[in-house]
Amino acid sequence: PRATDIIDNTFILSLINWIIRQQQSKGELSSPTNEKRTIGAILVFLPGKAEIEALFRVLTRFEHYSLPTDSIRIHKLHSGTSPSVQQSIFEPTPSNTVKIILSTNVAETSITIPDISHVIDTGRVKESRYSPTMRMKELVTVWTSQASANQRAGRAGRTS
Q: Which of 1, 12, 77, 121 could be disulfide-bonded to 45 (CB atoms 3.0-4.6 Å)?
């Protein structure tokens, strides 16, 4: 079935803020030797590029965070992302910095990002379907399958 509900970007922002605060309280964001760390990245699954851009606009309003703006690195990952940008997603972030990756289902099975510790899944995916009434293919947003949801959840802690 089609997923027609609007994605609540404010709720996703609240979840990200809560995760960051939990990491701060547990001391996961700091490193005693000030080296690059490999924990703490947040992966957000969204159905398409338009939804990624919408959430990116919400997240770049840094007044929502209790962290300085240089403590957050936001990356976009979809089929049109250039190889150089894709490469930056795999690089570890400095201490006291949280990496947030906004991705389509390309991060579901195609790649493994080593420092993902949290996954937020909107439960939606874009699919190409044939519409017999319009007699053409159309790109629609549908609910993801249970198998895909399990695969997405497994992205956290894959290598750490």
A: 121
